[in-house]
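pasting for the record
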Amino acid sequence: MKRACAAILSLSLTACVPWTVRPIEGQSAAAAQDRFDATRFVDSQWQTKILPAIEASAVDVSGLPAASSRKAGTHFILKGTARVLKVNPAPPLGQMSLDFEPFDGHADAVLQIGPEVRGSSLRDATGLVQFSQFVNQIDFANVSSKLNARALQCLPPTAEIAGSEGRRIAFTGTFTAGDEIPHIVPVRFRWVEGVK
């Protein structure tokens, strides 16, 4: 008898739903609106804060410390002119090898030409973008990726870059010490005409 009563009680409790769970109307829409948009963040900062800070802090290549005295992990903002030694536009990590003056035919730096870019030097070099501004590491990393993608917009078309060995360029960019030679993320780029 006790077993029968317990079974009936159990059946009646499982058949009864004491509450109904429904999503709050508009909750998904509000969550979508509150979701962080890294592209929008970068677009809002690029012209007004990021570029001015980079241009104000850029050090000419002639004043760049020797590789042996650059502390690994230190971020640099660099500007100058260089001769293009070699171009490898093959994705994902296209590169342009640069020879700084006085020209000696050896690569002094690599300009990253994408479509993917290594590192977070552009995000970290100015000090304007801090982890404390974001709710998580994912948003912070996404900002770095979007900044790198935004920076590559300064470059000419890939077809123009591909045949540029021997040409001179003027550039501004960032890099993080640690590699044997700098791997620069460009934010300004132009051809210096008339000199091969």
